[in-house]
Amino acid sequence: MRAIAVSSILVVMLLAGCGDTTGSRALSGGGMGAAAGGLIGSLSGNFGEGALIGAGVGAVGGYLYDQHEKGNID
To answer: Alpha-carbon torsion 34, 36, 37, 39, what sign?
Structure first.
């Protein structure tokens, strides 16, 4: 079960930059983060909390990736 969780996290990290605009990258990052967070949270019995935390972290990650690609962040 842990191998599946680790694999899912790696896939999410690789795909976090999907999209062309700031909104689409933040949205795709949030969606993938929610999926990974829900999976990890379900291992400890807290699916909802894990999904919410993952969505927040994923959305912020997608936004920061977009800003880095645009050259606004080094």
So the answer is: positive
